[in-house]
Every structure is written in structure tokens, then in C-alpha cells.
Amino acid sequence: MKTVTGRSSGGRSSPQLVTENERPYPWRQIAGIAAGKTLMRGSFALVSICMNEILLDIYGGNLTAVARYGSAISSVNTLVSFFMQPLSGALMDKYGRKPFLVCGGILAGILRGQVGLNPSSLSYTLYRLFLPVFYAPFFPAFRATMSDLLDRRSDRYAQAMETIEWFGSVMHLLCLYLMRNTLTPSQGAILAGALGISGGLLINFTVEETLREEDRREVEYESLGNPISAISFFKKNEQMTKLGLLHVIVTVPYYNTTLGMYRRQRFGWTMSQMTSQQMYSMLFSLGSPFLLLKILRTLGNKGTMILEERISVIQNIFNICNSNESYSWVTTFLAALQFGDTGFNRELAIWSKGCRCGEGELEGAMANINLPLQLLLPVFFTEMHIYFVEKFNIVYAPLVLTTVLHVTNGEFFIPCLWPENRN
Q1: Do the beta carbons of residue 92 and residue 360 sit within 8 Å?
Q2: Contact of 113 with 121, CB cutoff 8 Å
């Protein structure tokens, strides 16, 4: 029997050991969910390019109008998710993961396909409004399923997740190639819908329910009446409180979504260049599964998070200073070394395991703890970008601010708030 530990920086072990059982590796289950998620990753790759182009066409190429519409609809999505995530998490712990895995892909595929068949302001708005209802629960259900099969604190869980991500990157790369060279935006949305539906059906026929009967939890409807109560998850012990606060703080700069608009305005990028940048990102990410465990074992969970913040600083400075668009691939190369989320999630899983929390409860709490930031910050960064462009012709103001935030996170907040081992 192999035993591994979650690690903090400096080689210190976290308080609980993770035992990798000698039971056979669940290859069939892993293969089924990996194949289904890979198809859905292809669907996402297509919409990440084609939906922006469809929206630009709807607004006649007005970047400011598109940016403001995007930040406003993101805030609405956040409110919908705020009420949906605790409910879907509780239902996931009661009735299982599979319904959310299957329905998420199928219903999201239908929404995406209808935008391609009938591109209009109404169809796009309906797509954005209902997507968090149908599709957002898929990702918590996926992580919960993988945790049921492979303890999320273990090395093999981290490795399996990165391997699935590797196959997803290959599919992402293929879909981006098609989007750049073959498909129109409407055709891309239609194909995205077909891939999403196919992914849901594939999971339905190949993946069994992983939630055991003895692990099912009753739905506490009184608690669900107040979704904010999910945040109490982080008050179960001092270490989880610190991690909850840390999660809120370090995610602030990641709500800056103006980089695409910055590149369009500074370099005149169109769909072709944006697609090429994503293709570079996927190519470099193919090496991530081979680096993940080495970085985690060398730096620990805490060090891995600090590394991500320092890399983000380098990326932002490069984006600000780079005047040659042909070198924009450098930032995507550096992104292949960023595993901060994995480090944080491993540490949280270690400290939360003794609280007998359901996987759905964990996912619901993680989704909702950042609600105020999710509502305000996308709009803030968008308006900040527009203001500095219109008043001073400065296109990189949000990048300067987020650089300062990344420095503060990596050098102060993570070291100060990281839970210490008491054993």
C-alpha cells in the first residue's frame, strides 16, 4: 500500500495522510468520463472563439458595447449561479453525480446550437442566461465523481485530472484549428452544440454512478433557503477559515477579462489571431501532466500557489511591455507552469476531510464564497479599461493593477494566511 502526504512549503507535511488503496484502478469509469469531458472541452473551445465573433456581429463591431454587455451578463450569471450552486451541490450529495454530468452537456449543447442556427441578440442572451443553470453544475459533478473514484487529496487524483486535461487540450487544439481555417462563427456554434450533446450521451452510456448509498446525505432545505449559509462551510475550523479568506483574496486579479480587448485595440487582432493564441496555449499545456507532480512535490501546495502568482506578474509585465504581437506566445508558455488551483484544492481537501463534508457541499461553498467579487469586479475592470482608453489612450491600466495584486498575493497574503501544521 502506497502512502502519500499533502505538503506545505518547506517540506512540512499537512495533518492528514492520504492512503492510495490497493483496489484496482477504475480504468473504465475514468475512460468514460474522460472521453465525455473531452468532447465537452471541444465544445467550449469552439464557443470561446465563435460566440465572441457572433456577439461582435450583433453589435456591429462595437468593442465597447460588447465589453459592457459581457460584464453585465456575467454579473447576471453570477447571481443565477449563486442560487443554483448550493442547490445542485445538495442534490448531488443526495441523488448522485451522474444526472448533472449527463444533463449538463446535453442541455448546454442545445443552447449553443440554437445560437448558431439563429444568431441574434435574443438567442445569445437566452444562451448566456440559462447556461449557468444547466451547465455550471457539470464541473462540480465531474470533480466530485473523480474524488469518489480517486481521493482528491492523493497524487493519483491530481495526475488523473491533469491527464484528462491533456486529452482535453488536444481536442481544444483540433477545434481551434477548425475554427481558424474552416468554420464560420455560426458553424462553430452548431458544432459546439453537437459535441456537447455527444459528450453528455457518452457519459450516460459509459459512466456508472459513483456516490455510494452510505455516503448519501439528506437535503437540508432550510439551509438552502439562505444560499449564503454555504459560506459557513469555511468556519468549520481555523485552517479552513484561512483558506476561504485566501481564496477570496487571490482570485481578485483573475476577474480582469480585458486582455482580449487590449490585444484587439493594441494589435488589431481578429478571430484568426485570437484563435492562434489559444492554439499556442493548448500546445504548451500538453506538457503540463508531466510537470504537475514534480512541481507539487518540489514546492508543496503553498509553494505551487506562490509560483503561479509570480508567473502571473511576469506575464502581465510582458503583456504591458511587449510591442511585437508575434511574441505573445511567451505568456502561454509560462501558463503551462501554473498549478495554483491544484495546490489550493489539495490543501483544502486535506483540512476539510475531517469535517465529514459532502463533495457537493464543498463545491457549493467554493462557488459562492466569491459572490460579491463575481458581481462587481468584471464590471470594474471593464469600466476601468474603457475609462483609461477614452481619457488617456492607455490600454493596459487593468494589467498594471492586477500586477500589483499578484505581487501582494504571492509575497504577503499566501505566506500570512496559509494554515500551519499543528502536528
Answers
A1: yes
A2: no
Q: DSSP strand E in 228-376: where?
A: none
Which range among 5-9, 161-165, 342-346, 349-353 shows the weakest confidence by mean pLDDT? 5-9
How far is Cα 125 from Cα 231, in angstroms, rounded to an integer? 30
| SS3 per residue for 279-306 | HHHHHHHCCHHHHHHHHHHHHHHHHHHH
Q: What is the mean pLDDT of residues 332-356?
A: 85
CB 93 within 8 Å of CB 358: yes
For 164, the grid coordinates are 484528462
Residue 220 CA, chain-centre distance (Å), reads 27
Q: Which triple of cell numbers denotes residue 160?
A: 488523473
Which CATH number fits the domain 24-211+230-417, given the four candidates 3.40.50.2000, 1.20.1250.20, 3.40.50.300, 1.10.10.10?
1.20.1250.20
CA-nearest of 322, 348, 323, 344 to 334 is 322
Residue 127 CA, distance from chain mean position: 19
CA dist., res. 89 & res. 227, Å (int): 11
Grid cell for residue 64: 465597447
Banded pLDDT at 226 (limits 50, 70, 90): low
CA separation for the pair 136, 76 (Å, rounded): 14
| CA separation for the pair 219, 229 (Å, rounded) | 14
- State the distance between the two ends of the chain, measured CA to CA, in whole angstroms: 23
Distance between CA atoms of 13 and 420, rounded to whole angstroms?
10
| Lowest-confidence region among 68-72, 110-114, 395-399 | 68-72
Residue 299: CB partners within 8 Å, gap ≥ 6? Answer: 9, 306, 307, 343
Sorted by where each begins, the domain ranges of the chain are 24-211+230-417
Q: What are the grid coordinates assigned to 177, written together?
A: 484549428
DSSP-derived 3-state class of residue 16: strand
As a whole number, mean pLDDT of residues 110-131 equals: 91
Residue 31 cell numbers, joined: 475512460
Q: How far apart are CA 207 and CA 288, in angstroms?
A: 26
Q: Using the structure block, give the residue that is written with the C-alpha cell 432550510.
A: 222
DSSP state of 154: S
CB count in 10 Å sphere of residue 343: 28
Q: What is the C-alpha separation between 41 and 161, in angstroms, rounded?
A: 13
Cα–Cα distance for residue pair 281/241, rounded to 1 Å: 34
Q: Which amino acid is at 342?
A: T
